[in-house]
Amino acid sequence: MQAERKPNAHTEAGAASPANDGKREQSGIAFPYADLDAAVAVVRDIQQIGGQTCEAEQLAGLWRIAATGGAFRARYAPARTFGLLTVDKGRFTLTQLGMRISDRTQETAARVDAFLHVPLYKAVYEKYRNYQLPGDNALEAEMVRLGVSAKQKGLARQVLSRSARQAGFHWAGEDRLVKPNVAAAAQQTPAETMPHDGADRAPNTDAGPRTGGSGGGGSYHPFIEGLLQTLPEPGTVWAIEGRAAWLMAAAQNFTLIYKGEGRIDIQPMPAPQRADKAAA
User: Fold this and answer.
1) From CA 110, how far away is CA 132, in angstroms rounded?
2) Angle CA 245–248–254, to nearest 5
3) Is the model's pTM score more than 0.70?
């Protein structure tokens, strides 16, 4: 698949790698130099200043940097590449996608759309859709073929990986890009909009326990629903490596869904060798 080659807007922000002759080496396909979370932070800063729009000097003032410097352009540029804002004559305006991503009832779906808005990420996703991602070196080589400069390939791959995780594309594992199921999240009613009769209600104990596997009832977050759909049938053999990969995917989804500090490390430990096999 040959992606459309066009100058990377971020080279204007001073983020491109300098070539040997002192000139910046530009990539032929657009991608951000900071991840999706950094882009969303820009959206929230603009909303803090003026809702949907603000002036460059106002945003630079909030960040305590010069509005005419490369550091300022480099900071807001990722949000533009993800399609979250437009810049016109020094005025920053959030796009519809930018407004959606700042709305917690639409954020999950908006993050998916923002990830696929990036030309490089869209091309990589389409290339390896339904397939396992190659190793780091092979993926970087593919990015170069798509238009990323050789000196930027490592950064491009690392930022893609972080952004994919933040957009929910690694819910099935770090070795593939799988679009999350966001339909259920869009249909959920926010807790504060649910009717309340003024009295606390006891939890429903008649519904029985929730079950995983293919019998999910749609009562979980869509990321969790997706994980449950990948569980093998009870009583079947499930290799320790597969269990560890599933748990790591779950831990990554918890980071997206819930708030909290710290990290979870999961390491598979093979079963100890039996004495009779060792003697043989």
Assistant:
1) 24
2) 145
3) no
